[in-house]
Amino acid sequence: MKFLRQPLLCDECKKPIEEYAHGMIEWLEDGSAISEVRVVHNPAHSPTGRCYKHLYHAKRRELHLADILNNEALRKQLEITD
Ligand SMILES: [Zn+2]
Predict the structure, then answer these.
(1) Ligand 1 centroid vs 56 CA: distance in angstroms?
(2) pLDDT 10s per residue in the chain (82 long)?
(3) Verdict on whether the full-model pTM lies above 0.70
(4) Backbone angles phi, psi at 30, to 5 degrees
(5) Ligand 1 centre and the CA of 10: distance in Å?
(6) How far is the CA of 43 from the centre of ligand 1 (A)?
(7) Segment (H or E) for 62
Protein backbone atom coordinates (compact mmCIF):
# COMPACT_ATOMS: atom_id res chain seq x y z
CA MET A 1 0.00 0.00 0.00
CA LYS A 2 1.29 3.45 -0.95
CA PHE A 3 0.27 6.61 0.86
CA LEU A 4 0.10 10.00 -0.80
CA ARG A 5 -0.04 12.16 2.30
CA GLN A 6 2.61 14.82 2.85
CA PRO A 7 5.49 14.79 3.32
CA LEU A 8 5.57 12.68 0.23
CA LEU A 9 9.05 11.22 -0.14
CA CYS A 10 10.49 9.90 -3.36
CA ASP A 11 11.05 6.14 -3.27
CA GLU A 12 14.37 6.60 -5.04
CA CYS A 13 16.18 9.69 -3.72
CA LYS A 14 14.14 9.89 -0.46
CA LYS A 15 13.73 13.66 -0.86
CA PRO A 16 10.30 15.34 -0.69
CA ILE A 17 8.11 15.60 -3.74
CA GLU A 18 6.94 19.15 -3.11
CA GLU A 19 3.89 19.13 -5.37
CA TYR A 20 1.83 16.38 -6.89
CA ALA A 21 2.70 17.87 -10.26
CA HIS A 22 6.35 16.97 -9.60
CA GLY A 23 5.66 13.30 -9.04
CA MET A 24 5.33 10.20 -11.15
CA ILE A 25 4.11 6.71 -10.40
CA GLU A 26 6.02 3.89 -12.02
CA TRP A 27 5.23 0.21 -11.76
CA LEU A 28 5.70 -3.11 -13.47
CA GLU A 29 2.70 -4.82 -15.02
CA ASP A 30 2.76 -8.37 -16.30
CA GLY A 31 -0.75 -9.38 -17.33
CA SER A 32 -2.79 -8.76 -14.20
CA ALA A 33 0.24 -8.91 -11.92
CA ILE A 34 1.35 -5.52 -10.65
CA SER A 35 4.56 -5.04 -8.72
CA GLU A 36 7.21 -2.48 -7.82
CA VAL A 37 4.78 0.43 -7.44
CA ARG A 38 6.97 3.47 -6.79
CA VAL A 39 6.31 7.15 -6.21
CA VAL A 40 9.21 9.11 -7.67
CA HIS A 41 10.19 12.53 -8.97
CA ASN A 42 9.42 13.53 -12.51
CA PRO A 43 12.89 13.90 -14.09
CA ALA A 44 12.25 17.63 -14.60
CA HIS A 45 11.95 18.04 -10.81
CA SER A 46 14.34 15.38 -9.62
CA PRO A 47 17.26 16.48 -7.40
CA THR A 48 19.41 13.83 -9.06
CA GLY A 49 17.80 13.98 -12.51
CA ARG A 50 16.96 10.32 -12.40
CA CYS A 51 14.59 8.78 -9.93
CA TYR A 52 13.15 6.15 -12.22
CA LYS A 53 14.32 2.65 -11.46
CA HIS A 54 12.83 0.60 -14.26
CA LEU A 55 13.14 2.98 -17.18
CA TYR A 56 14.21 0.29 -19.63
CA HIS A 57 12.10 -2.53 -18.27
CA ALA A 58 9.74 -3.92 -20.93
CA LYS A 59 6.85 -4.26 -18.45
CA ARG A 60 7.23 -0.76 -17.05
CA ARG A 61 4.26 1.60 -16.89
CA GLU A 62 4.19 5.19 -15.69
CA LEU A 63 1.66 7.88 -15.02
CA HIS A 64 1.79 11.43 -13.71
CA LEU A 65 0.96 11.45 -10.03
CA ALA A 66 -1.57 14.23 -10.56
CA ASP A 67 -3.43 12.09 -13.08
CA ILE A 68 -3.75 9.18 -10.72
CA LEU A 69 -5.30 11.16 -7.86
CA ASN A 70 -8.80 11.13 -9.30
CA ASN A 71 -8.59 7.72 -10.90
CA GLU A 72 -10.16 5.53 -8.22
CA ALA A 73 -9.99 2.33 -10.25
CA LEU A 74 -6.32 2.68 -10.99
CA ARG A 75 -5.51 3.72 -7.45
CA LYS A 76 -7.23 0.62 -6.18
CA GLN A 77 -5.32 -1.51 -8.67
CA LEU A 78 -1.99 0.02 -7.66
CA GLU A 79 -2.94 0.11 -3.95
CA ILE A 80 -2.43 3.84 -3.62
CA THR A 81 -4.36 5.67 -0.95
CA ASP A 82 -4.45 9.09 0.77
ZN1 LIG B 1 13.52 11.52 -6.31
Answers:
(1) 17
(2) 888 888 899 999 999 999 999 999 999 999 999 999 999 999 999 999 999 999 999 999 999 999 998 899 999 999 998 7
(3) yes
(4) -125, 95
(5) 5
(6) 8
(7) strand 60-64
